Amino acid sequence: MTDTELLTGALLADGTGAPLRPAEILIQDSRVAAVENPGTLPADLPRRDLTGLVLAPGFIDVHSHADNAPLLSTDDTTKILQGVTTEVVGNCGFSLAPRSGDHAETLSTFLQRLFPPLEFSWTGFHDLFAATDDAGYVTNYCPLIGHGTLRIAALGMTDAAPDDTALHTMRSALEEGMTAGAFGLSSGLIYPPAVFATTDELSTVAEALAGTGLYVTHMRNEGDNLLESIDEALRIGAAAGRTHLSHLKATHPDNWGKMRPALAKIRQARGDGHDVVQDVYPYTASSTMLTALLPTSYLAGSAEQTLTRLSSTAGRDELAATIGERTRWDGVLIATTASHRFEGRTIADLAKADDTEPVDVLINVLVSERLRVSMINFTMHEDDLELAMADPHTMIGSDGLPPGMGGKPHPRLTGTFPRVLGRYSRERDVLTLPEAIRRMTSLPAKSFRIPDRGTIAPGQIADLVAFDADAVIDVGDYQDPLRDPRGIPWVCQRGRTVVEGGEYVGPRSGIRLTPKS
């Protein structure tokens, strides 16, 4: 496109939550130059007719695991086709740096449970960001620093408490990452090695952010101990400065209904002066590594040690006793595996087919795939989801797992944002359309301090999406997830068209962003 373009005919959703209104938007040199009533701007300007569409700021996915997307040989279009122009990566304690000499192989082996194979050419964050900058970005890239990765660099996969030297190593790496341009610290307290970390350890590391930083957490427990986990997150977040609760949920039927007291606790904390917000994804099934079903006692040490525990008779019997009765095996769906066996089938289905116990199927899948398995877990209730989504401090994150794994990943990877617009705004009226767009744009831009994005106003970067409010919807499902959404015909980044007619036309036009001071 030219350096100047006038967008006409659309209804403007400016990202603030204000009512939709007819407007014309002038783009010049990658930024919004003017927002005026129709017919106000010169008629002889190059123009794009968006009649029948809603024009909004590019959406911001606050919970992505696409850290590896720049390093792929192909362009990852799972988000840009949803209208997402910016992704926050490095969530749940997983970042691709730092890598220490002593534990570099440990990190490489662990990350294979989540990411496709990576060719590491970096050690610290400056090296990592140089590599991703050189490769280029489909969407804008806002990296977090993973506590789990910091802990591996200092201690490996041990369950031991860090001494002063290890704590210094973690804090120094965090400070280096922030200097390199990261947006904050993330944790994933159900995953090794972070599952072994105490509240005091996490608070000590977070204190390196000097009370002005951001702590983003997959909390220690989202079920029986949800409320206690919120308390812990707030304590750690206070040490950092600000708290973001990732994919807020109440898991397992025993805990359905806990969303109301959870939101009340968060609201009270906000009233007491805590800067705390949260995100959700618009599905009642979660997705993560299959090893997340294992008790903590199985997770310490190397992958070989975990496999040995699983393969022993005593290990099998302990597993059956601890998780066998409470796990809803018909709700545990195998999403991706290293060999692509078992994908798209539940543990219960596989057990029935083999005339064996579900716990034995779990062990067989994990051992035969050497722990490189992800699952989809149907554990949530629609009422809790809608209650969390309706809270005005809730933003939207896909929690899409890393691209390039193949298999049958959770459909949130391709459908999160159109599903909010279609199902939860248009069909179920959980959010008005202007409010749904605010949750995807200005709210995350403000919370994560993302520069010059989140609203359509003069001076803002022209990252924009145009969609059909009557037709936008997700299409993928749990058996056929990698399907493009409908109703999003046009996306631009910095004024350059990258999606035309619902098709990605490229080239990579995102950039790595750094937080506003």
**Number of DSSP E strands:** 23
Low-confidence stretches: none
Shape: globular
Largest sheet: 7 strands, mixed
Q: Which structural class matches the secondary elements?
A: alpha/beta
Write down the Rg: 23 Å
What's the number of helices? 15
Q: N-to-C terminal Cα separation, in Å? A: 32 Å
Q: Widest sheet: strand order?
A: 3-2-7-20-21-22-23
Helix percent reads 25-40%
Q: What does the average pLDDT come to?
A: 97
Strand content: 15-25%
Give a short summary of the structure.
The chain has 517 residues and is of the alpha/beta class. The chain has helices at 104-111, 125-135, 147-155, 164-180, 199-206, 226-240, 259-271, 303-311, 313-323, 347-354, 358-368, 382-390, 412-427, 433-440, 442-448; strands at residues 4-8, 11-12, 21-22, 24-28, 31-36, 47-49, 54-57, 59-61, 84-89, 140-143, 145-146, 185-188, 213-218, 241-245, 276-280, 285-289, 332-337, 373-378, 394-396, 464-467, 490-493, 496-500, 503-504.
